[in-house]
Amino acid sequence: MRGLAYAYSEPSITASYKVNNEDFQVREILNFEPDGEGDHLFLLIEKNGLTTQDVQKQLMQFFKLPDRDVSYSGMKDKQALTQQWFSVKQESRDNLNTDNLNSDKMSVQGVFRNKRKLKRGSHRSNQFSIRLRDLSDKADVLIEALQAISLEGVPNYFGEQRFGRNGDNVSKARQFFSGALKIKDRYQRGIYISAARAHLFNQVLSQRVESKTWNAYVSGDRMSLDGSSASFKPESWDEILAERLKIKDIHPSGPMWGAGELLSDDLCALTEKTIVSAEKELKSGLEQAGLEQQRRPLRSMPRDLKYTVENETTILIEFTLSKGAYATSFLRELVKLRPLEFSQERQVEQFT
Fold first, then answer.
1. What is the active site of this protein (predicted)?
2. CA Rg, the chain, in Å?
3. Which of 56, 150, 276, 296 has CA 20 to 30 A from 311's CA?
């Protein structure tokens, strides 16, 4: 995320995060309630130090099912304490004991039946509880910034997780699109393609942040509905839409690049085309990858934001983000995060 513009100002305070997994907690909130019947078991699982795929594999082994019958809604961090939903195909109505799934790294918090399997992106939001430690200045200094973020939100950048170690995923995408890199694994191809798409979006958003229009209407904008993947292009901009933008019911959007006609027009489309055209290899590769043009909100609004100053150099921040928004992009506007290697060293000092 180097080189991307800041909405407020580049933070002067540094902080450690994920000193231990409990310092970074996430709870996934579904967009619906399981209906209580059907051939699919929904399991709410708490994991600690595991990837989402790690849990999926354990469920496949436990239930003796192929990966297509064990699904999840969203990906969650490994270095964190998280709760997320999984579904497994289980037609048998026999009483099922899931105690053998429990370990020091994962536990089943709830089991419910549902008629349909869990699809990717079925959650509405994620609740975060994040502790920042070893602040380089007093924690009280962050309160003004938190209040501003609570009112105006943050740029909805894709976080560093999307781009891999040292941002290598975008480089790999370039090699893949050019034919220099052959990738048989479908999942790995998807990671690189997603990184390329996210990179182009971040470049467009950064320009909008620089021009101070990331949270304002620009002629030709396509507006995203808050908390939804739906968007619309206003026939004309009026006071009603301006008020909806002000109360954060709608947000400007940016391109998730693919084939087909760009969904914005006028000045907005001109800006997007200019920025994306500078990345010819990624642009062409995405258009040929079978993806269609989509939109993503430029603004992310943290809801239910609250904080607790635990001591002069430690603060606990709790908030909720819509699915697809990154907590690290929220934190980026607040503090400079020390590399995780530093946090891991700090963990050894504190807990051994």
1. 77
2. 21
3. 150
| pLDDT at residue 129 tops 80 | yes
Contact 87, 30 (CB under 8 A): no
DSSP 67-102: GGGEEESS---SSSEEEEEEEEE----S----GGG-
Residue 36 has pLDDT above 60, yes or no: yes
Q: Which domain holds residue 235?
A: 156-300
**DSSP state for residue 259 in the 8-state scheme:** B
- Please report which helix (H) or strand (E) contains residue 231, including its range: strand 231-232
Distance CA(323)–CA(145), nearest Å, equals 23
pLDDT value of position 1: 74
| Structure confidence at residue 236 (pLDDT) | 94
Cβ proximity of 330 and 146 under 8 Å: no
Instruction: Kindly state whether residues 280 and 330 are assigned to the same domain.
Output: no
The CATH number given to whatever domain includes residue 341 is: 3.30.2350.20
- Is 77 annotated in the active site? yes
97, 132: one domain = no
Whether 348 shows a pLDDT value over 60: the answer reads no
Residue-wise pLDDT tens digits, 287-343: 999 899 999 999 999 999 999 999 999 999 999 999 999 999 999 999 999 988 644
Residue 73 lies in a domain: yes
**165 CB neighbour count, 10 Å cutoff:** 7
Give me the pLDDT at residue 91, please: 84
215 lies in the same domain as 286: yes
Task: Render pLDDT for 137-170 as a digit per residue (tens, 0 to 9).
Answer: 999 989 999 999 999 999 999 999 899 888 899 9
Selecting among 69, 77, 137, 265, the annotated active-site residue is 77
* 107: Cα within 13 Å, side-chain hemisphere: 5
pLDDT for the residue 306: 97
Residues 262 and 283: beta-carbon distance below 8 Å: no
Q: Is residue 284 part of a domain?
A: yes
Alpha carbon dihedral 80, 84, 87, 93, in 10-degree steps, equals 110
Identify whether residues 75 and 187 lie together within a single domain: no
User: CA 143 to CA 120: how far, in whole Å?
Assistant: 36
